[in-house]
Structures are given as C-alpha cells and as structure tokens.
Amino acid sequence: MLHYKYLIIGGGMAAASAVEGIREVDPGGEIGVITAEGDPPYDRPPLSKQLWTGQKKMDDILRPVSREGVTFHLQRTAKTLKPAHKQVTDDTGETYTFEKLLLATGGTPRRLPFGGDNIIYLRTLESYRRLRDLAGREDAFAVIGGGFIGSEIAAALAMNGKKVSIIMPEKGICDRLFPADVVAFLNDYYRQKGVEVLANEMAANLEGRGADLEVVIKNNRRVAANGVVAGIGIIPNVQLAEAAGLETGNGILVDAALRTSHPDIFAAGDVANFFDSALGARRRVEHEDLANSMGKAAGRSMAGEPVNFRHSPMFYSDMFEIGYEAVGELDSRLNVAADWQEKYHTGVLYYLDESQVRGVLLWNVWGKVDEARALIAAGEKVSAASLKGRIAHS
Predict the structure, then answer these.
(1) Which domains can be identified in the chain, with CATH numbers?
(2) What is the pLDDT of residues 132-144, one digit of tens each?
(3) Which of 68, 169, 225, 359 lies at a CB distance of 3.0 to 4.6 Å from 329, suitable for a disulfide?
(4) Which CB contacts under 8 angstroms, 24+ apart, belong to 39-46?
C-alpha cells in the first residue's frame, strides 16, 4: 500500500498545475499522480495547433513539473475510490491512501458507433503521434466534426499539404458557437484553402481497411480517405466520483475552494463543474486556461491555503490565418452584436442575453481578454449600438 499526502488522479494540464500549486504552499509533502497515459504531463492544445505549424516542437509542450517528492504512476487507471477510507485502487490492484485527493480525470472522446480503431480520436499525445505518422505517409484525410478539434485539425492537415474533407451535421464550421453569417464565411474560407466542406451531412459508416478507407454519408455519398479523424466532443470522466457517492451533474460539482462534496477530495479541469461568478451560473469548461488556473488553485487549496476560485476562463483557437480569443458564454442561439473593423477578419462580437453581455469573441483582436472579462462581470444593461468601439480593435 502506497501513501501520499496528496494524491492526484489524472495526468493532464490540471494535474500538472495542481502539483505547482501544492509546491507553492507545501514544498515537501509527498505527491502521487496516477495517469492512464504513458507520457508525463504535456500541453494538449498544440496537438491540433502549433505542432502542425512548426511553432512548437515536442519538447516545447512537455510540462516542467517538479519531480522532487512527486511520483508518477504511468499507464495506471484508478478503478475504485473509497472516501471513508481515503483509499484508491488502480487497475493493477495497487492500493493508495491519501490525506488529500484531486480528481483531474478529464474526459473521454465521444466515439462513433462505427469505424473502431480505424478512426483517430485526437485527444492524447499517443493519438497525435499516430496521426502525424499517418500524415507523413498518406495524402487524403476525412475529419468528422466541425467544432474546435475538427476545425483546427482540418486546417492543420490542409496547411501540411493534405487533401482534407470535413464532415458535419450542422450548417457549418463551429455552428454552435458563431452566428450564421460567420459560419457561412468560415465554410467559404475553408473551401478557398482547399478543404472540402460537407455541411448538413451525417457520417453513417466507415468501410475499408488500413489506408484505403471510405466514409459513407447518409445520402450514400462516399468520401475516400487514407485516414479519418473524429472530433465530436468529450464525455466527462465522472464514473469514479459517482461510484464513490460524490455529487455530480455535468461533471463533478465543486465549491469555491474546489472541494467536492467530500471535504478532502477536490476536482479540477475538464471534469469539474464550478460556479462562474462573472456569469452567475455553474459551468464545465474544456479549455487550457481553465485547466491551468483551476488546477493551480486546487493544489493550493489542497495544501491548506484559503481559496475562493473566481476566475472566468478564456479560450482560443487558430484556423489558418484567423485566430480568436473568447471569454464567457459563446452560443449561436444568443443575440450577437458584431463590431467589425474589417468584416470577418478583425472585430469584436458581443453575445447578449436580455441586454446583458454574456460572452465576447475577439476575432483577430489581441490583448483584450481582461477588458472582455470586466464587461461580462459588470452585468450592465447595454444596447448593440452602445457596444460599438466598447473594446478597441487594437
């Protein structure tokens, strides 16, 4: 039986940041990290961004996590959690006890009901290596899903000279995030970049083997590909918490100190459902900024520092030469007031609900995230006209 003062389940960005947070408060407490991955912690966003553009190399994405007093148990999966005994058992039968526990279990990619291992679900460094190796040998790729991962990896593959088709049931790229005119622009923009955009189309099957594949669409059209990538969202890994009797609901529920319903068990990252004070609502956010800020705060909280987590996370994406940063709630069903400097190329979009700003999209506008956060947190009643120039474009 192994005992740690601090035990962390999960080996992603939130876990790495939690180690940093613990060490800022407690320089010597023993830390154990259980992770199903075979790699130590690394930054995940470059898997669909900078690793493909050459802006980063593999060594650049590895997290400089302290190894002093930290033991990583790689390729292990926590199977049972007994809060009353402060005990965790992994898939090898190893048992761990703890004083404080962090659940940074992340999420599992949603899988299609066909295709099996012929479909790459880009989520881990291992899946990136597989796709990168395939892209080094083959030319044609189909991407299923038009959200964050789908749009980013379709652009990345196209920028690497690959023939790419992107297939989605929605009206277009990032349809759930952006207003209809921006979605239409993106569809055309991707087509101009050589990507075949198949909107309003549902992938129904995958036939073939090896690098000779065909995605079958519901209208019986077939898309030939040497490789298939799917990005259709993740399911938060709450099974361990639920079986242990912790409170869950679209993730693991945490308070402002990032504690779960058990006072010595905490949660952070993609799996945590927290109260966003700026929006006045509970949220679960699957982005880098949240993983890093919440992970560090959870670590400090575990180590005994009073924590009141009030961070409103930002997120970002890159699509060819277009990049954006965003804060708050981006939902295409909200009213959107657009303030363009150059239409579809530089501007700020404000997402309104009952005349309050709930989200801000900074489209090729940089360094304005804090202004956007402040505007959302203010909660003032505004008109679309009054938002013109509210956040400067430069």
Answers:
(1) 2-108+234-302 (3.50.50.60), 111-230 (3.50.50.60), 321-387 (3.30.390.30)
(2) 999 999 999 999 9
(3) 359
(4) 39/11, 39/74, 39/124, 39/125, 39/126, 40/11, 40/65, 40/72, 40/74, 41/11, 41/12, 41/13, 41/15, 41/16, 41/65, 42/125, 43/13, 43/288, 44/12, 44/13, 44/123, 44/288, 45/288
